[in-house]
Write a structure and sequence with these properties.
Number of helices: 4
Shape: elongated
Low-confidence stretches: none
Largest sheet: 2 strands, antiparallel
CATH superfamily: Cytochrome P450
Number of strands: 8
CATH topology: Cytochrome p450
Strand order of the largest sheet: 1-4
Structural class: alpha+beta
Distance between the termini: 16 Å
Radius of gyration: 19 Å
Number of domains: 1
Strand content: 5-15%
Helix content: 25-40%
Order of helices and strands: HHEEEEHHEEEE
Bound molecules: protoporphyrin IX containing FE
CATH architecture: Orthogonal Bundle
Length: 174
């Protein structure tokens, strides 16, 4: 579906450039859904609370170090239907985005320490993904099925794939 969209939008050009990225609605939802399930920065930058507060009946003392788990929030069943499923369509109505006001989806963080690279990197991600989708059809090696695809991560300062991504590109001729 994502590669159909890219090929439809850039049909006349025969290559992908920045001019029509705004028309790639579905590709953007795929990027959002990927960032929801696999935010590279699992834990946001540490904060300190400037006031005593209560959370779930626990008193949080003044100036505690607060570490927000963006990964767990992005998978919380209270905020997401079928939270563990990859469903880009959930972003299609545009009511939730990563700009830091929807606290259930904060792959770039929120507030004063929100990622300053966010608006720079979003179109870059779209451009890279759109190019890869336009020029190639991607298949899994050795008859592997998408549902068996291993998406486990190694958690460190940033989360990355546990096993190398192995895909077979087939050149697309428009
Ligand atoms: C997909 C790509 C990226 C993701 C998911 C990401 C995510 C994040 C997150 C979650 C934070 C912490 C925000 C918080 O705690 O509220 C952060 C901070 C930061 N990001 Fe990014 N980032 C990305 C790309 C970039 C790029 C391309 C740049 C620079 C061009 C950048 C520069 C920074 C800087 C300088 C900070 C620290 C801000 C501070 O100290 O307050 N990031 N990023």
């Amino acid at each position: 579906m994502a590669n159909e969209e890219v090929r439809r939008v850039y049909e006349n050009e025969g290559f992908v450039d920045e001019s029509k990225l705004h028309q790639l609605k579905y590709v953007m939802t795929v990027i959002q859904e990927t960032l929801r399930l696999h935010p590279p920065l699992v834990l946001l930058l540490p904060r300190q609370n400037s006031e005593i507060c209560q959370i779930d009946g626990y008193e949080i003392p003044l100036k505690s170090t607060v570490i927000i788990n963006a990964w767990a929030i992005g998978r919380h069943p209270q905020y997401w239907n079928d939270a563990e499923k990859f469903q880009p369509e959930r972003f299609i109505d545009g009511s939730v985005d990563f700009k830091g006001t929807n606290f259930e989806f904060i792959p770039f963080g929120a507030g004063r320490r929100i990622c300053p690279g966010m608006s720079f990197v979003a179109p870059i991600l779209e451009l890279i993904i759109a190019n890869l989708l336009y020029h190639f059809d991607w298949k899994l090696p050795n008859g592997e099925k998408p549902e068996d695809f291993d998406m486990s991560e190694i958690f460190g300062a940033v989360a990355r794939r546990k096993h190398d991504l192995c895909l077979v590109p087939f050149t697309y001729q428009p």
